[in-house]
Design goal:
- This protein has a five-stranded mixed barrel. Strands 7-6-8-9-10 form a five-stranded parallel sheet. It has a three-stranded antiparallel sheet with strand order 11-12-13, with no helix packed on it.
- Strand 1 and strand 2 form a beta hairpin.
- Helix content is 58%, strand content 18%.
- With 526 residues, the protein is α/β, with parallel strands linked by helices.
- The chain has three domains: 104 residues, Nucleic acid-binding proteins (OB fold (Dihydrolipoamide Acetyltransferase, E2P), Beta Barrel); 120 residues, Rossmann fold; 151 residues.
């Protein structure tokens, strides 16, 4: 068996170098996926891979020297992109072969195609939007209601960034008292996804009226870092409406598609919030003007009606008072006439009765005196006859002794006769006095009887009614310090329950009216 040919490692590397040498100066375009990338000393080192059916079919290292990297980055910036190789992205690179006996085979990148990067970003964005639309995530947050005047605003952006300053300045210059809750987050780069997700969770726990995701302007690759599917699904599931201002002037980001409302710039978003307050203020001003105009018209109308009612009330009260007074005067006149007629009738009856009584008394006294005279005469005649008989008997018999005995008897009889005459005279006088007393009593009863009492009572009652009418006259009550308070509907305010702070009322005094506004009420029974 012949001995095998043994080559040294350098023989192999030299052979490879000789084979590849004719191709090292030739540049060619390579399309591949970046597996990893890093920057050292201004140079970019990356690993390019190609996969098929879920497995890698090719792998090769590449390098971009610093001078080439600066030139390529300048070309990308002209296209509105950042040139930055990152794991997972696809790139189209203009390369040439480079083989080194120690460092091996690699590709040296001398240029890159920005159009390919743009196409890849757009393709990825469209695929992401289609998945979100298929799952219904593009309409979930948009269905949430937004407060007409959002006051608690949750802001997700980088602190002290242009977007933060624009929003804060616009809100502060508006003059409205917004409460801004800032959740500082990275808005580009690999850590942007986790940072934004944490910010959404933190703000959602504070229950803001509105969540704002804002980022200022930038190139398309910087803004493309926010076309993140996890962030988009988290915004769609947020319990608060989310407004976005990612900074795209012409394109729509993935976050704009799933958000409730999207704005082109942070300033435009802040102006949208301020516009709500300005529109509400304008509507309130217009409503205030219309209300003031309507209220003024109604107040003037009700004021005119109130003035007419006050005039009517005063005239009605005066007319009622005059009518009541006229009725009282008529009643008093009728009463006076009735009393006069009643007195005249009683005086006439009293005069007739007094005349009859006087005639009857004179008749009775005359009859009594005549009877007394007749009785006295009869008694005197009887006594004279008896005395004459006794004297004759004494004269015939001449018996003085017996006369002396009978004389005391005669003296007693004469005394008894005198006393009987005196008793008769006094009885007659007593009868006359009794008749006179009865006549005087009858005259007094006729003059001071129930008729006079009834008349006095009616006069007193009429005077009381006249005073009562005067006391209930509203004008007299208002002159004593009382007033009539009416509300906007011309209703009389009779209780503190009918009055509320802020109500406009009108106070009517006896000499005019005054408008007032109720500022405070207090119930004394509470």
């Amino acid at each position: 068996m012949p001995s095998p040919t043994i080559y040294s490692l350098s023989d192999i590397t030299n052979r490879l170098a000789s084979i590849l040498a004719p191709h090292e100066e030739k540049a060619f375009w390579v399309q591949a996926e970046v597996a990893s990338a890093s920057t050292r000393g201004g140079h970019v080192y990356a690993t390019l891979v190609e996969s098929a059916a879920g497995r890698q079919v090719a792998k090769l290292d590449c390098v971009i020297w610093s001078r080439d990297h600066a030139r390529i980055a300048a070309g990308f910036r002209k296209a509105g992109l950042d040139f930055e190789l990152a794991g997972g992205m696809k790139a189209c690179l203009h390369c040439r072969l480079s083989f080194h006996a120690v460092f091996g085979l690699k590709l040296v990148v001398v240029d890159a195609d920005p159009r390919f990067v743009l196409g890849e970003l757009e393709l990825r964005r469209r695929e992401m939007i289609e998945r979100l639309q298929a799952d219904g995530d593009t309409a979930r947050n948009a269905a949430l209601p937004v407060s007409a005047l959002p006051l608690r605003l949750g802001l997700i952006t980088s602190r002290d960034s242009a977007a933060y300053n624009d929003i804060v300045k616009t809100l502060r210059d508006s003059g409205y008292g917004f409460r801004l809750l800032l959740a500082d987050a990275l808005m580009q780069g690999e850590k942007a996804e986790a940072s934004i997700l944490r910010a959404i969770d933190a703000l959602e726990a504070l229950a803001p009226d509105l969540v704002i995701v804002a980022r200022g302007g930038g190139n398309r690759t910087e803004l493309a870092s926010l076309d993140n599917e996890r962030v988009a699904r988290r915004i769609a599931a947020c319990t608060a409406p989310v407004w976005t201002a990612i900074g795209h002037e012409t394109d729509t980001s993935v976050l704009d598609v799933v958000a409730h409302t999207a704005f082109k710039t942070p300033t435009a978003l802040a102006e949208g919030i301020v516009t709500r307050y300005r529109d509400a203020a304008n509507r309130m001003l217009a409503a205030r003007t219309a209300l003031l105009r309507e209220w003024t018209h109604r107040i003037e109308t009700q004021r005119t009606l109130l003035s007419d009612d006050i005039v009517g009330l005063r005239q009605g009260s005066r007319k009622l008072h005059a009518f009541s007074r006229s009725e009282l005067v008529s009643t008093a006149e009728r009463l006076h006439l009735a009393v006069t007629e009643r007195f005249a009738s009683h005086d006439q009856r009293l005069a007739v009765a007094a005349r009859h009584l006087r005639i009857k008394a004179e008749h009775v006294v005359g009859e009594a005196a005549e009877r007394a005279h007749r009785a006295a005469a009869t008694l005197r005649d009887a006594c004279v006859q008896q005395l004459d008989g006794a004297w004759r008997l004494l004269a015939h018999r001449s018996v003085r002794l017996r006369f002396e005995r009978v004389r005391p008897l005669f003296e007693r009889g004469r005394g008894a006769l005198a006393r009987a005459a005196d008793v008769l005279r006094r009885g007659t006088r007593t009868a006359v006095l009794l008749r006179r007393q009865r006549a005087a009593l009858l005259r007094q009863r006729l003059r001071g009887g129930p008729a006079l009492s009834r008349i006095s009572h009616l006069i007193l009652l009429n005077e009381q009614r006249a005073r009562l009418v005067d006391a209930h006259d509203p004008v007299n009550a208002m002159k004593r310090g009382f007033a009539i308070i009416t509300d906007a509907r011309q209703r009389v305010v009779r209780s503190v329950a009918d009055a509320r702070p802020g109500d406009a009322v009108r106070i009517a005094f006896h000499d005019g009216t005054a408008d007032a506004t109720i500022t405070h009420t207090e119930d004394q029974h509470v």
